[in-house]
Design a protein that fits this description.
Keywords: Membrane, Transmembrane, Transmembrane helix. It contains 21 helices and 32 strands. It is of the alpha+beta class and 741 residues long.
Length: 741
C-alpha cells in the first residue's frame, strides 16, 4: 500500500476524538526563535507534528527584545529591536496578532537627519521641520534636494516596469538580469541626482531602514529592491495617504508570550546552540548542539540568518546549497538604551521618530562615514510619557558613547546585508528549500523586515509540513502589484518635472560651469597685441551672453508655468500644515514633543479666558445612503482644554458600504488654532447593512488663540463634517477625498 504524498487535513487527522495517523506525524526541530522561528512554531503547534525549539540565547524572540526602563520609582516596558509595523505590508503578522488577541496602537513614523553635530538638520514631519534651520530656506542644495525627491518619487518607478521581465534572467544568471542588479549608487549617477539628495535623503533613509553602512548603501544596495520597498510602503508619493503605522500595546514580548503559553517546557532548549545539522542514511536529519548532544528529527527548520544556516549545514551541504547560501551576509550592530540627548538633533523642530546622525569624514569631506547611527525616539514610537519617564532613546551604532549615567542597556543585533548577489540568491532559494529534510526561514529571504521573517516561517509550516493556518496566507512582496499604473496626473507631474529639469536645473548647471570656466584665464595661442580683443572675440562674447540671457528668460517662463500647475497641490499641502482654508491642524499626539512648545505644555486650560462655544454640523453626500448626525449640539471649552464629542453614523441601506469623511472649521481664521488629537476623518469607515456606530472626535483649541488680535470677538466655532462614499482607482487603491476648502 502506497502512502499518499500529501497528508489529509488537520480536521480529519488531529481533531478531537479521532486518532492521529502516525504516518504523517513528524518530529520537527525549529532552530532559532526570532520572528520566523516563532511563527513556524505557532503554525506547527496547531498541527499533529511533534515540535521542538532550539535557541542559543537565554531568551526568546531574537530582535523582539522587550526590556524594562526605570526612572526613579517608575518602570515601563520598552522595545529595543522590533518596534513598529504597518497596516499595508504586514498582513500575516496583523492577522496573527488578532488570533492571539495581542492589541496594537497607532504610532507615528517620521524621519530626520542631522549632520556634524547639528551643522545641518532637517526632518520630514512638516514644512516647518523641513526648514528646521531657517538658513536652509536660502540654500540651493536644500531646494535641489527637495526637487530631486519629487523627481525620484516619480521616475524611480520606471525600474519596476521591467522588473518581472528580468526575474527569469536573474534566476538563470543570464545577461538580461544585469539591469536588475543595478545598485543605488549607479542609478543615482546615471540619472544625475544631486549630492544633497544622495547624502541628505536617500542614503540616510536606506542606511537607517536596512541598518546598513552608508558606503554599502551607495555602492552595493540593489536599486530595484529599494524602489519596490518604498513603493509598497507608499514612500514614493510627495503628498499622499500612507499606511497607518502601529506598535504593540504591551510591547513585542506580548506576542512571544502568547505563542509560548502552554508550550511544553521539555520541548524548549534555551542556551542551546545548534552547531551542526547532518543527514542520516534513512533520510532523517540529526541536530548537533554545543554541549555534545544530538537528536534525530524528520524535519529541521533553520530559522536563522542565511550565513548562520550555511555554517550549520556546511559539513554536509551540497554544492548548490553552498553556492546559494554563501551570498547572504549580515552586519553586526550595537544598540544602546539611554537618555542622552546628544544623540538627537539639536533643534527640537527636527526631532523625529527615527533620527539619522552622521559625520563628514575629515580626510575626504564625505557626508557619511562608514557607520549608521540611528536614534529611535521611544517617547514618540511607544507613547512613553516624557514627564514621567524622561527621554527614552534607543540608539543603534552611536557615533560616540552616551553618557554612562544615562545608559540602561546595551545589546547586539545582526541585520541582513542586501547586495545584488543576495537578491539573485533569494530567487534561487526554492531550489534548496525542503531538500534533505531542511527548510530555511528568516527575514533575509525577502526585504529583511519582521513581516518577511514571520511570513517565511508560516509559509514553510504550511507548504512543507502542511500546517493549516486560521487565515489566508498573503504574500506581501507585491502588495501593490508588480508594476505601477501611471495616470494622467502622474504624466502631467512628470512633464512638469522634466521641464524644470531641462530648462532650469540644466541651464543653471551650464551657467555655473561657465562662471567657473570664466575664472580661469584662457591660454594664449597666438601673439598678443597689447591685450586688445579682436572683433571676432567681441562678437563671440556677446553671442554667449545673449544665449545665456535667452536661456534664463526661457527658464523663468517655463518655471512659472510649472509652478502654476503645481500650485494647487502645494497649496493643499500648506493648508494641511498651517490650517489655511479652514482646515484644522491635526495634532501629533501627546508623546511627540514635550519641549516648551510641545503638546503637553499646551494642554493647560486658560482659566482667565472666556469659554468658546463649539457647535457641530454634519452632512452626507447624495450618493451615500447613510444617516450621520452629531450626538451633541455644542460644547463650551476653554483654550487649552481638551474636549470629546461624538457623531453617530447609520447605514440605512441593505448593503455594506465604505464611507470617508472630510471636515472644515468656520470661521476659517480659527482653523490654525483648532487641533484634533483623534478623529475619524480621511479614513475608510465600513458600515454593514443597517449598522450604527459612534465616531469620536478628541480636540482642543490652542491657548495662543487668546493672544491673536484677529480672534477677538469670536465666541462660536463650528466643526463641519461631510461623509462621502469611498472611491478607489483602477488598482483598488483608496482615493482620499479632497479637504473642504
Amino acid at each position: 500500500m502506497s502512502i499518499p504524498r500529501r497528508p489529509p487535513s488537520l480536521e480529519s487527522v488531529g481533531s478531537v476524538g479521532s486518532p492521529i495517523d502516525h504516518r504523517f506525524r513528524k518530529k520537527v526541530a525549529v532552530v532559532g526563535s526570532g520572528s520566523a522561528g516563532i511563527s513556524a512554531l505557532w503554525a506547527l503547534n496547531r498541527s499533529y507534528h511533534d515540535v521542538y525549539l532550539y535557541e542559543a540565547s537565554s531568551r526568546l524572540g531574537g530582535h523582539t527584545n522587550t526590556v524594562t526602563w526605570k526612572n526613579g520609582k517608575y518602570e515601563t516596558s520598552v522595545d529595543t529591536g522590533f518596534i513598529v509595523l504597518n497596516t499595508a505590508t504586514y498582513p500575516n503578522f496583523i492577522n496573527f496578532l488578532k488570533r492571539v488577541k495581542v492589541d496594537t496602537v497607532p504610532t507615528e513614523m517620521t524621519f530626520g537627519v542631522t549632520r556634524d553635530h547639528g551643522a545641518f538638520e532637517w526632518a520630514g514631519t512638516s514644512l516647518e521641520a523641513v526648514f528646521a534651520q531657517r538658513k536652509n530656506i536660502f540654500s540651493p542644495r536644500m531646494w535641489r534636494m527637495i526637487f530631486d525627491i519629487m523627481r525620484f518619487n516619480q521616475f524611480a518607478l520606471d525600474l519596476l516596469m521591467t522588473d518581472d521581465e528580468n526575474d527569469a534572467a536573474a534566476m538563470n544568471g543570464g545577461s538580461r538580469g544585469a539591469r536588475r542588479e543595478e545598485t543605488i549608487g549607479e542609478y543615482l549617477d546615471r540619472e544625475g541626482y544631486s549630492e544633497g539628495f544622495r547624502d541628505d535623503y536617500l542614503i540616510p533613509m536606506t542606511a537607517a531602514v536596512w541598518s546598513t553602512s552608508p558606503d554599502k548603501c551607495t555602492l552595493d544596495f540593489p536599486a530595484v529592491t529599494l524602489v519596490r520597498f518604498m513603493w509598497n510602503h507608499h514612500l514614493l508619493s510627495t503628498v499622499a495617504t500612507r499606511p497607518q503605522w502601529l506598535t504593540l500595546k504591551k510591547c513585542g514580548k506580548s506576542y512571544i508570550d502568547a505563542v509560548m503559553r502552554g508550550f511544553p517546557s521539555n520541548h524548549l532548549f534555551l542556551n542551546t546552540q545548534v552547531t551542526q545539522v547532518t543527514s542520516e542514511e534513512d533520510g532523517r536529519v540529526r541536530v548537533h548542539t554545543h554541549n555534545g548532544k544530538s537528536d534525530v528529527y524528520d524535519h529541521v527548520i533553520l530559522a536563522t540568518h542565511g550565513d548562520q544556516a550555511l555554517k550549520i549545514i556546511e559539513s554536509s551541504a551540497t554544492p548548490e546549497e553552498k553556492e546559494i547560501l554563501s551570498a547572504f551576509k549580515t552586519s553586526e550592530n550595537s544598540v544602546v538604551l539611554h537618555s542622552d540627548l546628544s544623540h538627537m538633533p539639536k533643534s527640537t523642530k527636527a526631532w523625529s521618530s527615527w533620527n539619522y546622525l552622521t559625520l563628514s569624514s575629515p580626510s575626504t569631506g564625505k557626508q557619511n562615514i562608514d557607520q549608521v547611527s540611528l536614534t529611535y525616539n521611544m517617547n514618540i514610537l511607544q507613547h512613553i510619557p516624557r514627564e514621567t519617564f524622561g527621554d527614552v532613546l534607543v540608539t543603534m551604532n552611536p557615533l560616540h558613547q552616551p553618557n554612562p549615567d544615562t545608559i540602561q542597556g546595551s545589546f547586539t543585533y545582526r541585520h541582513p546585508l542586501y547586495t545584488p548577489a543576495a537578491v539573485r540568491a533569494q530567487k534561487l532559494l526554492p531550489r534548496i528549500q525542503n531538500k534533505r529534510g531542511i527548510s530555511y526561514a528568516g527575514a533575509w529571504t525577502k526585504y529583511g523586515f519582521h513581516e518577511d521573517g514571520f511570513s517565511s516561517g508560516l509559509q514553510i509550516a504550511q507548504d512543507h509540513l502542511y500546517a493549516k493556518l486560521p487565515f489566508q496566507f498573503v504574500d506581501s512582496t507585491y502588495s501593490r502589484g508588480r508594476k505601477p499604473s501611471l495616470g494622467i496626473v502622474d504624466l502631467l507631474v512628470r512633464l512638469i518635472i522634466l521641464v524644470i529639469q531641462i530648462f532650469v536645473i540644466k541651464v543653471s548647471e551650464r551657467a555655473a560651469a561657465r562662471r567657473a570656466a570664466s575664472t580661469t584665464p584662457p591660454k594664449q595661442t597666438g601673439p598678443s597685441f597689447g591685450g586688445a580683443p579682436s572683433m571676432e572675440q567681441i562678437h563671440a562674447h556677446y553671442k554667449r551672453k545673449n544665449a545665456t540671457t535667452a536661456y534664463y528668460t526661457l527658464s523663468v517662463i517655463l518655471g512659472t508655468v510649472a509652478l502654476s500647475y503645481g500650485s494647487v497641490p502645494l497649496y493643499k499641502m500648506i493648508c494641511a500644515t498651517t490650517g489655511w482654508g479652514g482646515q484644522p491642524i491635526r495634532a501629533h499626539g501627546p508623546d511627540v514633543d514635550y519641549s516648551g512648545d510641545g503638546l503637553a505644555a499646551r494642554l493647560v486650560p486658560v482659566t482667565s479666558a472666556n469659554r468658546i462655544r463649539v457647535t457641530f454640523n454634519s452632512s452626507v453626500s447624495d450618493t451615500l445612503p447613510w444617516k450621520f448626525t452629531p450626538q451633541q449640539r455644542e460644547v463650551r471649552v476653554l483654550p487649552g482644554e481638551t474636549a470629546l464629542a461624538f457623531y453617530t453614523a447609520t447605514n440605512t441601506s441593505d448593503t455594506d458600504i465604505i464611507g470617508v469623511a472630510t471636515y472644515s472649521v468656520t470661521p476659517g481664521q480659527v482653523a490654525p488654532y483648532f487641533s484634533k488629537i483623534q478623529c475619524f476623518c480621511f479614513e475608510e469607515q465600513r458600515l454593514n447593512a443597517g449598522e450604527t456606530v459612534d465616531m469620536p472626535v478628541f480636540f482642543y483649541l490652542d491657548p495662543d488663540i487668546v493672544n491673536d488680535v484677529n480672534m477677538k470677538g469670536i465666541e462660536t466655532v463650528t466643526l463641519n463634517y461631510t461623509f462621502f462614499k469611498a472611491k478607489y482607482d483602477d488598482n483598488g487603491k483608496f482615493k482620499a477625498p479632497k479637504p473642504m476648502m
